[in-house]
Amino acid sequence: METKKTLLENLRPPIVTILGHVDHGKTTLLDFIRETNVAKKEVGGITQRIGASVVETKEGKKITFIDTPGHAAFAKMRSRGASVADIAVLVVAGEEGIKPQTQEALNFILDAKIPYIVAVTKIDLPTASIDNVRSQFEKTGISFEGRGGDVPLVGVSSRTGKGVEILLDLIALTSEVYGLKGNSEEPLEAVVIETGKDKRGSTTSVVVKSGKLTIGQDVVSENVKARIRGIFNFKGESVREVFPGEPALILGFKEPPIVGSRIWTASEKENLAVLVKDKIVTPMTEGKMSIILKTQSAGSVEAIISNIPSEVLVVSSGVGDVTEGDIFLAKSTSSSIFAFEAKVPLSVSKLAENEGVKIESFNIVYELFERLEEIVEEGIVEIKGKAEIIAIFSYDGKSVAGCKVTLGKILKMDKLTLFREMEEVGKVKIISMKKGKQDIQEAKQGEECGILFAPQLDFRVSDMLISVRK
User: Fold this and answer.
1) What's the gap between Cα 161 and its chain centre?
2) Per residue in 230-258, pLDDT tens?
3) Are residues 349 and 373 located together in one domain of the fold?
4) Residue 184 lies in a domain
């Protein structure tokens, strides 16, 4: 009797992700299940970040849903969502059938080796056909229940609610078949599904897989450690502890942990080397326009960077509001600032205007990418080369900068910008370039040369010269 009680206590809510092609009804379905209006409030109809919520079936069984984005640009986040989930629901619009992102999502599910259910959405539309969708899947080698396979398929309508309870029952049944368990007495293991910042500081969204998360607990992730000083459930209510299968937003990390990483109690991982994560900085590359990217979530940073055109150089990226430091960095690297859902304080906006730094704000991810493509096509900015002043010589009464090219190449025809400790000193024009006594037209990465430029600014050793061509 005690054994049976223990087994029941160890059962936990299944963690479920809903994947599928953009506009195939993923968010609308989840919206109906949760009985909220999330879908109607989304800008541009695209879910912008991963969250989680808990629903309860009519039989009182709990299910935790991870809300993963459905846009192609967020494929990396969607893949991560599948890896943390126990069960996946693959949505396919009944009137459109399988699309490229449908197959992409299916590949994520198969790679994650988790059970899944196919939900044919929009079956209330006259052109919707469950049979056509089933046939398309079977041509790819997928076999469904009742037809020689073990993959459940159900038709649903988020408008009428038809089939939704059947879907929830299938999820609960799948959970029971696979015997998903999580003992709250075991050591803590949670998965980071999102990070961000708000007025409370750094926030981390997690789902607990085993053990329990409690206030005052010392925890460690792969790159940071923290003492939990606040826990909020999916409703936003402050709680003292969270159990297996449940999502939560926690406070306590000064630096955000990596999305997709595990969190343990510090006592269990006391020998783990904890490395503080630096800002993501991509080395400058010849011939690329440069930007500084700011977003409200780490997941958005990774998703956007992984899909940025190859012609675009991300000098720096980070989570939170645009800061004065971002302005000075943008100015020193001749970069534009792209703010995705990130706020730009008035004081920072005024500083940007005074410093001649352009800030572009976006709430819709594909508009950000469209703008990047426009800039690439226009060829607005190209960073061609960078040189460090390693010595200063006097020649014919003028100062010559002894330089070493550290990136790309410097052309004699290029105009240069002189920087000192990330601040612009001024712009100059090359009068002559020499390698030894020989006149040269260019100097490539790793080469040293002497540069005479005008006007004769007050340059010093360690100053940087950057070649920017428009």
Assistant:
1) 32
2) 998 888 888 999 999 999 999 999 878 87
3) yes
4) no
Condensed to tens digits (0 to 9), the pLDDT of residues 151-202 reads 999 999 999 999 999 999 999 999 988 888 878 888 888 988 888 887 778 8
197 with 124, same domain: the answer is no
Query: Is 47 strand, coil or helix?
Result: coil
Tell me if 281 is assigned to some domain.
no
Domain, as residue range, for 443: 382-469
Structural domains counted in the chain: 4
Whether 249 and 118 map to the same domain: the answer is no
Instruction: Provide the token pair at 32.
Output: 């109906």
Indicate whether 208 and 313 sit together in one domain. no
β-partners of residue 144 are 151
Using only C-alpha atoms, what is the Rg of the chain? 27
Neighbours of 321 (CB within 10 A): 15
Helix (H, G, I), strand (E, B) or coil at 313: strand
In the DSSP assignment, the letter for residue 39 is H
Same domain, 52 and 166: yes
CATH number (domain holding residue 92) = 3.40.50.300
Q: What residues pair up with 335 in beta bridges, in sequence order?
A: none
The rounded distance, in Å, linking the Cα atoms of 198 and 209 is: 26
Q: What is the pLDDT of residue 379?
A: 56
**Cβ contacts of 418-421, under 8 Å, gap ≥ 24:** 418/457, 418/459, 418/463, 418/464, 418/465, 419/332, 419/463, 419/464, 419/465, 419/466, 420/460, 420/462, 420/463, 420/464
How far apart CA 246 and CA 191 sit, in angstroms, is 11
Burial 6-28 (b: 16+ CB within 10 A, else e): eeeebbbbbbbbbbbbbbbbbbb
For residue 405, is it within any domain? yes
What is the rounded end-to-end Cα distance, in angstroms, of the chain?
A: 78
pLDDT, position 301: 81
The CATH code of the domain that includes 414 is 2.40.30.10
